Amino acid sequence: MLKKTLISAGLLFILNAMCAQEEHAFAFVLNPSGSAGLQAAAAYKFEVANKVYKDLLQARGDARQQSPELVMTNGARYVAWMDPKKIRIGMEEKAYDVCVQFGPDSLAAMAALLAHELTHYYEKHDWNRNFAHSHSGLKAAKAIGEIDEGIKQETQADYMGGVLAFSAGYDVYGVMPRLLEQIYRSYGLPDTLKGYPSLPERVAVSQDAMRRLLDLQTVFETARYLSILENYESAAQYHRYILQDFQSREIYNNAGVNLALAALPYFSTAELGYILPFELDAHSRLHSLKSVQSDRLEVRKALLDEAIQQFDRAILLDPKYAPAYLHKACVYAVNGEWEEAAFWMKKGRRLAAAPQVAGFEVLEGVLHAMQGDTAKAQTVLATAHQRGNVLAGINLDVLQGNPPAPPRDVAAPSLERIDNLAIEDFLRSPEVDKEIRVAKQVVCGKKTWADSALWLHYEDDGQQYAVVHWCEGTGKNQTANSIGAGATSAAVLEAYGAPQRVLPDRGGSLWVYPGLGILVAVSPQGQVAGWGVFRKSK
Hints:
The chain is an alpha+beta fold. The protein has three domains: 2-217, no CATH class; 244-399, Serine Threonine Protein Phosphatase 5, Tetratricopeptide repeat (Alpha Horseshoe), CATH 1.25.40.10; 417-536. The chain has 19 helices and 14 strands. Strands 7-8-9-10-14-13-12-11 form an eight-stranded antiparallel sheet, sandwiched between helices. Strands 1-3-4-2 form a four-stranded mixed sheet, with helices on both faces. A two-stranded antiparallel ribbon has the order 5-6. It starts with a helix and ends with a strand.
């Protein structure tokens, strides 16, 4: 049986390789002296590449088109290719070996190459080529076939492919220009190939794409920190900026969540006393009502209406994306539209994977509570809490008349220095490496040192600002209380006490000390993975 399976797999790869030889295949290069692969690549190499590829498909999250299958052959002719007719992305084993030469950046190199081809697929870059090939007798087709859009398409593939790879967790900044040169050398290719921009042109185009990618990375990262610091409306502006260039279900969903979170402080605890399963923090919102605004009803309605629109766009991209249904149902619950909330909750729950079900359970219990059915709310929330759902336990306390206590105040920010810089000194004379204008009155920027980086958000001529100075676990920076990379969570508790907020973050947790202006990333193993300081306007 195993032998039969291996033979079938081998035949499949041979067929896939033959597909790559068709003229309509969109090849990364066409090596005239190279041979197309007729055998499967080593299984372990395919497994590694396929893991990266699945991460990219997950990040793209576009179910409107069929996801291409990944194949890998032992050829040395195309490097990688996109076959629109067979709906396949191909990669040669030789290209895999080139990526491995990048050492710590090998997976990023692989992601850059595969994301490049995926962008050609999703952006339909094959249209001119296929039209000219399929209608070769038409004068119009001949003219279209002669249009040289190669540079434009390669720029878009490098840039949007880079954004895709970054959103999937691969830092590809600067990788593609180096990868291009290494591929040409390893394949023994001349700088000029028929039908392609020259290598210097491709490198220059890729470098330009990387400069644009660096800007968007800064916007991505600043948006993340704004969400952590509860500047939700500003974070939503950053997501709008990203969506101009790159659309994915996650970005639409994140934009919607931040808009909804921005609306919640405009509700009193009498109007909304329960914690919904899109809130990043289970305590602070209940004690931060923005009651001074005379137009708070209009403001919150506008924010929630736009949040619904963003969730709808995420669902349009992927009708099976459960988080968008959950968050859409939460917004309807906030608005008191019980039937709509129940409809979207039930629809999403049928699609939810095991880890996502907990949010739907909390929402179900909260919906019962908000409609006055205390008994059902008690049953649903108690069951969820017994399974370890923290949010269910907090809502049980609210249901029983024991809301969370307000966060304790801390007198003054902690005086810390990262790379010998105090954040107050930076604020007296803020200067970043480059500024990106996100909106008319919104600017962000980033400044980098040897072991740290600083992100700046600047709005309304400085009336609103937020700045985060962060050092990863590889540096030697320590806090004033000698907390640095590798320190235990117990040492952090002894030095600074319990955090006022704890957020899930990149597999571990982020401890937030608003009064002290300190952030600490804690790994799942209970060790400090990085730390930073922040300041923000009131």
